[in-house]
Amino acid sequence: MQHAIKQEEKESKGSFYIEKEASRVAEMTYSKAGDAMIIIDHTEVDDALRGTGTGEALVEAAVSWARENKKKIMPLCPFANSVFRKNPSYQDVLK
Predict the structure, then answer these.
(1) What average pLDDT does the segment 59-72 reach?
(2) For residue 1, is pLDDT > 80?
(3) 27-59, pLDDT tens digit by residue?
(4) What's the pLDDT score for residue 81?
(5) CA separation for the pair 4, 60 (Å, rounded)
(6) From residue 75, how far is each of 4, 18, 23, 90, 91 by CA, in Å?
(7) Yes or no: is domain 6-93 CATH 3.30.70.3290?
(8) 67 pLDDT more than 80
(9) Chain-wide mean pLDDT for the chain?
(10) Where do the structural domains in the chain lie, given as residue ranges?
């Protein structure tokens, strides 16, 4: 079951997240680094969604957003970094 991934930005921070019954069940946070780059710093997925590809879907949403907005991504979060390493097609947005 795929959930809708939403995005929000506030000043220098932002996140891609999934809500279920008004609470966040998965979230990947980032910081803006200037106008051209974001730094993914944390990914958290509810235990009930672990192993469902939810974390990977959050990274994929960030990659799509980065391509559309001509941004680069620095994945400092160990999980996001591992997803980038496993997906050669994401290298175009990797900083």
Answers:
(1) 98
(2) no
(3) 999 999 999 999 999 999 999 999 999 999 999
(4) 98
(5) 13
(6) 22, 19, 25, 11, 11
(7) no
(8) yes
(9) 95
(10) 6-93
Q: How far is 57 from 2, CA to CA, in rounded Å?
A: 9
User: 54-68 and 78-86 are packed helices; what angle lies between their axes, rounded to 10 degrees?
Assistant: 70
Burial readout 15-30 (b: 16 or more C-beta within 10 A, e: otherwise) = bbbbeeeeeebbbbbb
Q: How far apart are CA 80 and CA 63, in angstroms?
A: 11
DSSP characters over 29-67: EEEEETTTEEEEEEEEE-GGGTTTTHHHHHHHHHHHHHH
Alpha carbons within 13 angstroms on the beta-carbon side of residue 24 total: 15
Of the candidates 31, 28, 24, 34, which has an alpha carbon nearest to the alpha carbon of residue 3?
Answer: 24
- The separation between CA 42 and the C-alpha centre of its own chain, rounded to angstroms, equals 9
pLDDT at residue 3 in the model = 76
Q: 46 pairs with which residues across the strands? A: none
